[in-house]
Amino acid sequence: MDRELNQINVIPLVDVMLVLLVIVLTTATFITTGQIPVDLAKAKEAGDRRDVPLILTLTKEGQLFLNEQPVTKETLPNAMAPHPRESLVVVRADRVTLLERFVEIVDEVRGLGFKQVSLEVVKL
């Protein structure tokens, strides 16, 4: 009973593709840009930087984080001391954060010698 195979059996291909799809979808849910939830302000222009900056996050409750690690205003100088002063510092502030608190943090960072301080926003 010799039969010629002139069709492709697609069922194993579909099974493999579904497994790969499940793997991609489950791993994609664990990958996020910011672990600390912050509602960023919006702007028409947003810069695209490729180097890895120091990220200061200021939440609406007033909590401060340096690269996902909680810090206070008093411990900020010690936490930033090991980093080179040429590093870019990106401040991720919640849009309802008091302007005074934001200015205090930026002033503190600039006082430590970091000259490249920018604000992260969401492009409209």
Looking at this protein, list some descriptive labels.
124 residues; alpha/beta; Nucleotidyltransferase, domain 5; five-stranded mixed beta sheet; two-stranded parallel ribbon; 3 helices; 19% strand
Walkthrough of the structure:
By secondary structure, the chain is an alpha/beta fold. The protein has a domain of 82 residues: Nucleotidyltransferase, domain 5. The protein is 29% helix and 19% strand. The chain contains three helices and seven strands. The longest helix is centred in the N-terminal third of the chain and has 18 residues. It starts with 10 loop residues before the first helix and ends with a strand. The model has no long low-confidence stretch (mean pLDDT 79).
Strand count: 7
Question: What characterizes the major β-sheet?
Answer: 5 strands, mixed
End-to-end Cα distance, whole Å, is 67 Å
Share of helical residues: 25-40%
CATH architecture of one domain: 2-Layer Sandwich
Strands of the widest sheet, in order across it, are 4-3-2-5-6
Strand content: 15-25%
Mean of all residue-level pLDDT scores = 79
CATH class of one domain: Alpha Beta
Treating each run of at least 4 consecutive H or I residues as one helix, how many helices?
3
Q: In sequence order, what are the helices and strands, one letter per element?
A: HEEEEHEHEE
Low-confidence stretches: none
